[in-house]
Each structure stands twice: as C-alpha cells, then as structure tokens.
Amino acid sequence: MPPRARVGGAIALWLAAMLVGFYALQGDDATDTTGSNAAPSASTTTIPPATTIVPATTIVPATTTTTTTTTTTQAPTEPEGPVVVAILEGGQFTLSGVVPDLATKEAIERLAATVYLGGMDSSLTVSSGIAAPAWFAAVPRTVTLLPVIGSGSITIDGDGAKVAGTSPSNEAAATFTAAIEALVGVDIVEPEIAVTGAGFPDLNARRQGDTVTLTGTFATDAAQANIVAGAIAVYGEAAVVDETTVSDGLDVPYWTYTMPTVFQLLAPFPDYVIDIRDGVTGGSLNDGANFKFGSAVLSQETEELLTVALAILTRDPTLGMVVKGHTDSTGPDDFNQQLSEARAAAAAEWLTTAGVEAGRIVTVGYGPTQPIASNATAAGRASNRRVEFVFGPLAPTVGG
What we know:
26% of the residues lie in helices and 26% in strands. It is an alpha/beta fold. The chain folds into two domains: 80-195, hypothetical protein tt1634 (3-Layer(aba) Sandwich), CATH 3.40.1520.20; 199-393, CATH 3.30.1330.60. α1 (102-116) crosses α6 (300-315). The chain has eight helices and 17 strands. The strands form three sheets. An eight-stranded mixed sheet has the order 12-11-10-13-14-17-15-16. Strands 3, 4, 5, 6, 7, 8 and 9 form a seven-stranded mixed sheet that branches.
C-alpha cells in the first residue's frame, strides 16, 4: 500500500480532475403516486466511450544512389518494443510513443482524458508488430499519477518505468514512485525527482445555495486570478465571495490550473465542500445524484458526473471514498433501507468497473433517515432519493 500522504496536485478533478458526489437532473417527470417504492432496479454501468485518434501515416522517403539510376526504398523499421512517454508541465499533459494494439491506445487515452480534462494532447501510435509484457496493462493507471508530484515525466517501455520531475516534498515523491512500482511490478531505477521544499497552497470552496465562498492562499497572483475568475464564470460575480490571498514560497500544483473546469463540473451541486490543505484533499458533495422513484438505476447524467469522482480517485492513490445512499419516506423502512444500499452500490459499481480498486470505496445506506427536503411534496421526495459522496484518506470513517 503506498504511503497515505496526499498532495494538492492529486485533486485537480477532482477536482480536475481534484474534486465527488453527484447531483444530476432527474431523467423524467414521473410522480410517485403509488404510495410505496417499487422494487430496486438493477444498476447498469456505462463507461464513457473512448475517443479514437487515428495515427498519422508515416511516409519513408526514397533513397537514391549517385552511381546508378536505380532507386531503392528502405522498409520501415519496426520498433523493438512498446514505449509510452507521459509529461505534465505547466498544467499541460502530453502523451507520445507506440503501443501494440488499438485497445491499449484507447485505454490509455480514455483514462488520461478523464484525469487531465481538456489539458491533454496525444500522439500515441499503434504497431501490431511489437509485443508487450503482461504488466503493460497497468500503463493507463500509471500515466495518471503525475499530479501527485505536480510536474515531471514517466517513460515506460518493455523493461519498466523511469521517472523524473519536481515535488514539493519527499513524502509526495515517495507516494508517487511507490504507486508506480506497485502498478508496474518492478522497481524504478534511480528516480530523478528534485524536492523543492515549497509549501502547499490551500483552498476551501463551499457552495450553499446561491453563494460560493472561496478561502485559501496561492503561490502567485495568476493562480489566484485563475481560480476566482473560474468560479465567477460559472456562478456569477454576485454569487462568489472571494477571501483568498497570495503568499511567496508556495508550490503551484496541478489543481490550481484545473479548478475552473472543476467548478463547471460541480455546477449541478447546490451544496458541496472542497477542501485542500497541507497537500491533503477532502470534502463532500451533498444533495447528490438523484434517482427515479423506486429505482437504483443510474441516469445518464449521473454517469457522466461520476467521471469527476473517477478522476479524483485515479489521480491520487491515497484517497478513498464513501458512497451514501438515501431514499424518501414512502414505503416500509426495511424496504427503503435495502433500496438505499442498492443506490450506493450502483454508484460504487460504476467506479470499480471503470478501474477503481474496490477496497477504496465504502458504501452505506441510510434509508429515509437523513432527508434534505420535506417528504410532504413530490419535489422534496425527489431530492431525498439520492446518493452522496465523501472523499478523504483511505479507509475513511463512515458516519454522518
């Protein structure tokens, strides 16, 4: 198990990524006039399709001798083995290299796009003439770990992995290398990671209804302006209370680049807290993803929002998540308890199918015991049929 220390770069999903509980607009206008909840529906899992990037054709120029009129063309040289180079610098992520098949290419690009959002550029190509070791299947997860140190590179070939970059602390660097070694199954030889000793910036973003309050300290005026402007663009200037400051000697982690996109992703949530402090990500997304009456089936909107949770967990191997299921008060309490557990399990199943280790997710059902609106109205009951997400260190405490 890699060290449990977390760095602010790991959240960017979250937030950005770095950050997960989801409120989705209800998929239909059906009313709950039956007087009791229907039997829980089986959950379905949909992973967003990968975007296929067609590799460019390589044209090898002809070589002409000077002593004869005969023109000879050199055959393309097949690479000896697979290689993937991932670089994160200044908030931009790039992928290059060659892999043995289209499925591997798509898997790497799909997960990288989830973690790095719009800040990704890929020039991966496919060569069917090369063979990859079995552990090469871990490459998609491996290239998503760069936010743990903040900036750097990972080079993976048939022999293993090489890493380089900068990190604010020895602890973050150790978390990064240990996570890669665990995935690849081989030691990293002489990792070239320079520890800067810079302090961690912090951010607390709290939305309650129409107001978003931002507090925290950033390394540069540009980082502060980027985050505040991102919140204003989503929620409006009148809704944002800015209490942030700037201080010298702090790191500029990946999440400071991606928070504007995170605000967009979290816009459907009327109640959330995102807290990044001392390199540790925490928080909760309340009034989460809603369900149709009597159903544990995830809506398409909810599945799309679950990619935010996936990005958070993928980028930071030290984080875990509690998924909480809830129901309205219609029907017997024992049945509602079962339904709330099924709703939490549906969200957890989506995440594990997408590649999150099952041991990092805890599910719990609360039945109708924690309403957030009145059960006397149809709108209130719809709000109470939900799942919520709490994220933090591995093995988080279930409660609340």
